[in-house]
Specification:
The structure is a homodimer of 206-residue chains. Chain A is mainly α and 206 residues long. Chain A is built from nine helices and three strands, in the order αααββαβααααα. Chain A is elongated.
Chain lengths: 206, 206
DNA sequence: ACAACCATGTAATCAGTTACATGATTTG
DNA sequence: CAAATCATGTAACTGATTACATGGTTGT
């Protein structure tokens, strides 16, 4: 069993799903492609953690609906109490922030502004989902949606905080422009943003 | 060239490093083990993106100090202007949050509280690094440290926001306890936190 | 004494992505 | 008429982790 396996168990703990549905559901928790999910489901079924029922459909391809077994539920419950391993984040944006100072101010601002747009779009999209989730969990089906409700709120809070950070960075870049000296103008001409920032810090100290 | 390669270029763009140093430096931007870094350095050197100099040491193993070449700098600059691909986050904690409602309140609270401890520790550690970084960049070496300064602040802001979220979740759990009815007590006895939360939402509506 | 730090490398394995393969139905 | 949705699977490949291998120095 690997983490994807536990992610599948946690999804099926709420409601039986097809592999196709799982791929969509897991995207917010532990993203995985269908090519990773289908073989994993087969393995877990062979280990008695899941069972499936074949559903014949007309107009749509047939599907397998997977449910969690008692053994699966036990396995999940035991794993949940163990302390989670450190999160893994890989974000190209961070590398670009780290090295944008080699290029000019225009590109630096664009990088940050594009990030803001991306984040705002995601937040807007997620806010809709949260509203839907809120409507769903004021009934007996609530327990099925409450975890997701918490998780979507978490992401939105953190994304909004990243937007604030982006704005702080933009301010720093623009302030360097504001206090522009002849030296800074020369540095801008030479595309030396690193030197401009140096100067900016110096000026902001005064 | 893959993303790790660009991460290496961005690190060497500031100062020449050994593979060993890179592994530590990259941890905050694009974590990688030495077993991934060393072969990559060799490949990049063969492609003319890097050059190295062997430094013979006494009392310590010899090392190779890698520097970025003009070709490397050009490659990096071109890549930086391209829009970054979506960040990838894999966090077991999220799966556990999603499925803790199968277990009891004690375990739910522990999961969140442990997360708070983890985050607080990381924030404290990072705050020290930020102070160091601030002292370093009020001189001519600033440009070497400013990107990291921004990135460490970003992580700290977001981690603090996650702590707030954790506290919000703890409040929700505790509020369900506060408004405890006989029904809730039974549910607690039966370890049905999902039902408690259902009830909690109902009560908070009043 | 034992762990941690410095320093580099390879081999085996596991995880994840992209591409190959099929095919009807619905929506813009 | 093209694209998206529904639905499942395998194969080839790239990326990442763990383990194997070596060995002196410094601090507890």
């Amino acid at each position: 069993m690997n983490t994807l396996g536990y992610a599948i168990l946690s999804a099926l703990g709420r409601k039986p799903c097809s592999g196709y549905e799982l791929a969509q559901y897991l995207d917010a928790v532990w993203p995985a492609k269908h090519s990773q999910i289908y073989p994993r489901l087969t393995k877990m079924e062979q280990n008695g953690l899941l069972i499936f029922e074949e559903v014949i459909q007309t107009g749509k391809p047939d599907k397998k609906i997977f449910s969690i077994t008692d053994k699966g539920r036990e396995t999940l419950e035991k794993w949940v109490t163990e302390s989670p391993s450190d999160p893994i984040m890989r974000d190209e944006f961070l590398i670009k922030v780290n090295s944008i100072w080699l290029s000019d101010e225009e590109n630096a601002k664009k990088l940050i502004q594009d990030r803001i747009s991306d984040l705002e779009q995601k937040v807007a999209f997620r806010t809709d989902t949260i509203t839907e989730l809120e409507q769903k969990h004021r009934g007996d089906t609530m327990s099925k949606h409450f975890g997701r409700y918490l998780l979507f709120n978490r992401r939105n809070m953190m994304d909004k905080e990243e937007i604030s950070w982006c704005q702080w960075v933009l301010n720093l870049i623009e302030k360097s422009n504001f206090n522009m000296s002849k030296l800074t103008l020369w540095m801008l001409g030479a595309g030396k943003l690193n030197l401009i920032i140096q100067n900016m810090i110096f000026v902001s100290e005064i």
